[in-house]
Design goal:
The protein is mostly beta strands and 221 residues long. The protein contains one helix and 16 strands. 10% of the residues lie in helices and 44% in strands. The strands form four sheets. It has a five-stranded mixed beta sheet with strand order 5-11-10-7-8, with no helix packed on it. It has a four-stranded antiparallel beta sheet with strand order 12-2-14-15, with no helix packed on it. It is globular. The termini are far apart. Bound molecules: copper (II) ion. The site of copper (II) ion (CU) has 5 residues, from loops. Pfam families: Copper-bind. Keywords: Copper, Metal-binding, Periplasm, Signal.
Length: 221
Amino acid sequence: MATQARWRAFAAVLCLGAAAAAQAATVTVSVVDREGNPVADAVVVITPAAPGAGRPPLAAQAVIAQTGMRFTPAVTLVPVGARLTFVNNDPWEHHVRGSAAGMAQFTASTSDGFELRLAGKKDGQAAQSAEVTMTEKGAILLGCHLHASMRGHVFVTDSPWTDRTGPDGRVVFNDVPNGAAQVRVWQADQLVDLPVRSVNAGAQATQLQVQLQVVPRRRRL
Ligand SMILES: [Cu+2]
């Protein structure tokens, strides 16, 4: 009798496990450029219609280094409310500016965004740094008033289901709640927003390919 009860309890746990697994779906998004080649550093945002219990938030802090006349990383992904720390490792000054990316960069007033002057790093001293808080979602273009070749981006998201594509151009989410969801793809050189795609996450793994209308420019090495 006791054994039977234990088996019943075990079976109940198995059922619960199966139910929990069924609620989370796998969604794979592949981003390719106009010529069909995989695109790294594109941002994929999934917004489930019913987010359920949600997902752990993305890290609310990020460091963007200015090293060798580059912003590193080139694309930084943070949630709304995150704190960014800019650190100048170069021995010369950088005058960092952040402003709306995409088509907005042609219409936004110059007073939008932020500016930071970071003195060059002196031998034997700590690098200069400054912090900025990202209060709104959207893509930010980073530049430097002193060095026109410097370019970087910050993507501020309001969905915890947000990730960057790897070198294979793919992002895989294994924990999208079952049901309808919207998928947005952002890429730095795709200035015109791509249409939002709809998927129905479910028992069958969802595969979605999104093609850019551009071929992203290569990063200066
Ligand atoms: Cu600079």
